[in-house]
Amino acid sequence: MVAIEVPAEYGYVVLSVFASFFVVAWMGFNVGKARKQYNVKYPTMYSDKSIIFNCYQRVHQNTLEGLPHYLAFALIGGLQHPVLVAGSSVVFLLGRIVYALGYYTGDPEKRLRGSFAYIGLLGMLGSTVSFAIHLLGWL
Prior knowledge:
The protein is mainly α and about 140 residues long.
Protein backbone atom coordinates (compact mmCIF):
# COMPACT_ATOMS: atom_id res chain seq x y z
CA MET A 1 0.00 0.00 0.00
CA VAL A 2 1.17 3.49 -0.83
CA ALA A 3 0.17 6.61 1.07
CA ILE A 4 -0.25 9.76 -0.98
CA GLU A 5 0.54 13.03 0.69
CA VAL A 6 -1.06 16.09 -0.87
CA PRO A 7 1.44 18.96 -0.81
CA ALA A 8 0.28 22.44 0.15
CA GLU A 9 1.25 23.66 -3.33
CA TYR A 10 -1.52 21.45 -4.73
CA GLY A 11 -3.74 24.42 -4.00
CA TYR A 12 -2.25 26.05 -7.11
CA VAL A 13 -3.43 23.07 -9.14
CA VAL A 14 -6.92 23.37 -7.68
CA LEU A 15 -7.02 27.08 -8.53
CA SER A 16 -5.83 26.51 -12.08
CA VAL A 17 -8.45 23.81 -12.60
CA PHE A 18 -11.04 26.16 -11.12
CA ALA A 19 -9.98 28.77 -13.70
CA SER A 20 -10.85 26.31 -16.47
CA PHE A 21 -14.51 26.69 -15.51
CA PHE A 22 -14.38 30.35 -16.48
CA VAL A 23 -12.61 29.66 -19.77
CA VAL A 24 -15.19 27.04 -20.77
CA ALA A 25 -18.08 29.22 -19.58
CA TRP A 26 -16.73 32.15 -21.62
CA MET A 27 -16.63 29.91 -24.69
CA GLY A 28 -20.19 28.69 -24.07
CA PHE A 29 -21.40 32.26 -23.57
CA ASN A 30 -19.79 33.20 -26.90
CA VAL A 31 -21.64 30.36 -28.64
CA GLY A 32 -24.90 31.67 -27.18
CA LYS A 33 -24.17 35.17 -28.48
CA ALA A 34 -23.23 33.76 -31.89
CA ARG A 35 -26.49 31.80 -31.99
CA LYS A 36 -28.41 35.05 -31.70
CA GLN A 37 -26.16 36.95 -34.09
CA TYR A 38 -26.25 34.28 -36.82
CA ASN A 39 -29.81 33.10 -36.09
CA VAL A 40 -28.97 29.48 -35.33
CA LYS A 41 -31.79 28.01 -33.24
CA TYR A 42 -31.52 25.23 -30.70
CA PRO A 43 -31.05 22.24 -31.01
CA THR A 44 -29.08 22.83 -34.22
CA MET A 45 -25.39 22.19 -33.44
CA TYR A 46 -23.88 23.53 -36.66
CA SER A 47 -25.17 25.93 -39.29
CA ASP A 48 -25.31 25.21 -42.99
CA LYS A 49 -25.35 28.98 -43.60
CA SER A 50 -22.78 30.51 -41.25
CA ILE A 51 -19.16 29.40 -41.23
CA ILE A 52 -18.38 31.89 -38.47
CA PHE A 53 -21.04 30.43 -36.18
CA ASN A 54 -19.55 27.00 -36.81
CA CYS A 55 -16.16 28.33 -35.75
CA TYR A 56 -17.63 29.53 -32.44
CA GLN A 57 -19.37 26.21 -31.90
CA ARG A 58 -16.27 24.25 -32.81
CA VAL A 59 -14.13 26.15 -30.28
CA HIS A 60 -16.48 25.21 -27.49
CA GLN A 61 -17.02 21.63 -28.65
CA ASN A 62 -13.32 20.95 -29.21
CA THR A 63 -12.48 22.33 -25.78
CA LEU A 64 -15.12 20.12 -24.14
CA GLU A 65 -13.75 17.10 -26.02
CA GLY A 66 -10.30 17.63 -24.51
CA LEU A 67 -11.42 18.74 -21.05
CA PRO A 68 -11.47 15.26 -19.44
CA HIS A 69 -7.82 14.68 -20.40
CA TYR A 70 -6.80 18.09 -19.15
CA LEU A 71 -8.58 17.57 -15.83
CA ALA A 72 -7.17 14.07 -15.31
CA PHE A 73 -3.61 15.11 -16.13
CA ALA A 74 -3.81 18.24 -13.97
CA LEU A 75 -5.39 16.61 -10.94
CA ILE A 76 -3.25 13.46 -11.01
CA GLY A 77 0.07 14.89 -12.19
CA GLY A 78 -0.28 17.76 -9.75
CA LEU A 79 0.05 15.35 -6.85
CA GLN A 80 3.71 14.78 -7.80
CA HIS A 81 4.60 18.14 -9.39
CA PRO A 82 2.04 20.74 -8.26
CA VAL A 83 3.88 23.90 -9.26
CA LEU A 84 4.87 22.54 -12.68
CA VAL A 85 1.32 21.36 -13.31
CA ALA A 86 -0.23 24.64 -12.18
CA GLY A 87 2.07 26.52 -14.56
CA SER A 88 1.36 24.04 -17.34
CA SER A 89 -2.34 24.45 -16.71
CA VAL A 90 -2.10 28.22 -17.09
CA VAL A 91 -0.18 27.76 -20.37
CA PHE A 92 -2.86 25.32 -21.55
CA LEU A 93 -5.73 27.66 -20.67
CA LEU A 94 -4.06 30.68 -22.25
CA GLY A 95 -3.46 28.58 -25.36
CA ARG A 96 -7.13 27.65 -25.49
CA ILE A 97 -8.09 31.33 -25.24
CA VAL A 98 -5.72 32.26 -28.08
CA TYR A 99 -7.05 29.27 -30.05
CA ALA A 100 -10.59 30.58 -29.54
CA LEU A 101 -9.79 34.15 -30.50
CA GLY A 102 -8.10 32.95 -33.67
CA TYR A 103 -10.96 30.65 -34.60
CA TYR A 104 -13.56 33.35 -33.88
CA THR A 105 -12.17 35.36 -36.81
CA GLY A 106 -13.82 32.88 -39.18
CA ASP A 107 -10.45 31.79 -40.54
CA PRO A 108 -9.88 28.31 -39.06
CA GLU A 109 -6.14 28.52 -39.77
CA LYS A 110 -5.83 31.27 -37.16
CA ARG A 111 -6.79 28.78 -34.45
CA LEU A 112 -3.27 27.40 -34.75
CA ARG A 113 -1.98 30.47 -32.92
CA GLY A 114 -3.12 28.71 -29.75
CA SER A 115 -1.16 25.55 -30.47
CA PHE A 116 1.18 26.37 -27.60
CA ALA A 117 -1.57 24.97 -25.36
CA TYR A 118 -0.12 21.57 -26.17
CA ILE A 119 3.11 22.52 -24.40
CA GLY A 120 1.07 22.89 -21.22
CA LEU A 121 -0.80 19.67 -21.87
CA LEU A 122 2.47 17.79 -22.41
CA GLY A 123 3.81 19.17 -19.13
CA MET A 124 0.76 17.81 -17.32
CA LEU A 125 0.94 14.50 -19.17
CA GLY A 126 4.60 14.08 -18.25
CA SER A 127 3.82 14.90 -14.62
CA THR A 128 1.09 12.26 -14.61
CA VAL A 129 3.48 9.63 -16.00
CA SER A 130 6.09 10.68 -13.44
CA PHE A 131 3.54 10.27 -10.65
CA ALA A 132 2.63 6.78 -11.88
CA ILE A 133 6.26 5.71 -12.13
CA HIS A 134 6.98 6.94 -8.59
CA LEU A 135 3.80 5.36 -7.27
CA LEU A 136 4.82 2.02 -8.73
CA GLY A 137 8.29 2.36 -7.21
CA TRP A 138 10.06 2.18 -10.57
CA LEU A 139 12.14 5.23 -9.60
